[in-house]
Amino acid sequence: MRSLNLPQWARPAWTRLAAVGLAAACVMAAPAHAQDDKMQPVPIPAQPNAIDLGTGPLPGATAPESWHRQYGSLFARNVTVATLTPFLPDPAKATGAAVIVTPGGGFRTLSMDNEGYDVARALADKGVAAFVIKYRLNQTPADMAGFERSMAEMFSATAARPPRPSPQAAIAGLAPQLADSRAAFALVRKRAAEWHVDPDRIGMLGFSAGAMLTLATTLAGEDAKPAFIGLIYGPLAPVTVPADAPPMFVALAADDPFFANSGFGLIDSWKAAKRPVEFHLYEQGGHGFGMYPKTTTSTGWFDAYVRWLGMHGLLKRAH
């Protein structure tokens, strides 16, 4: 495996991001008109098209998967078995391109609607096959009250900050998620003919923690090898860029409280390596805007992303 040379964010900063990531997905992302801000537990929805990725149950997990609704959107947590849900385009408009959609939520929860299903439906409407990965998560208390308390404790200014581990420990910390990501690519390539997907045109699009997983999957240099990547409000720390790094699309709001004030080293890294990169810095939008309709120009990120796909020939039917 290629040395990851992962930046500081990839060291279980997700222990810290578990707190800020949930706020990102649940608070900063809320549409301006939303009134239903309280987390409401809901039964696990039927997911008839979800396919078990075969990576097995999360080691040591004791809390079962559960879902809740907030701001009109569904969130999953305590995911212990990874799945992939296909959203296939009308065959008449299918281009052969595909995207593995990777929701965020601080590795403690997944924004399944705003950063998953809604994105996948929009891509399928453009002729791009989309696959929402529900990857395994770090465990949280099983009951909602305990979950909310645990998040409040992490937000507390007195919460202890963990020591910085070595890069090797960081890689081990992402092992379940990276295994899920690699399995997702393997599954889509295995069933490419059935799903009318070009196995050489499978990309990955991630949001917040999902953007971290997207970048880590790209830098790992193993069998996943996304053909193109999109990072939506993820960290922008510099990295060592592989010589064969794929084209990268990045979108971030200038008022993002987590990732807008640490420079744009990732963009500089891609440029220095002479790899294709497009960067949209929106004046407003906060963190976690996703597919929520907002009055800020950040709402236009999806249209810009689709134009970028078209510029790279990914909206043309493969022959």
TrEMBL record:
It comes from the Bacteria. It holds the Pfam family DLH. Residues 99-290 form the Dienelactone hydrolase domain. Residues 1-34 form the signal peptide. InterPro entries: AB_hydrolase_fold, Dienelactn_hydro, GDXG_lipolytic_enzyme. Keywords: Hydrolase, Signal. The keyword Lipoprotein does not apply. PANTHER family: AB HYDROLASE SUPERFAMILY PROTEIN C4A8.06C (PTHR48081), PEPTIDASE S9 PROLYL OLIGOPEPTIDASE CATALYTIC DOMAIN-CONTAINING PROTEIN (PTHR48081:SF6). This is Acetyl esterase/lipase. It comes from Caulobacter rhizosphaerae.
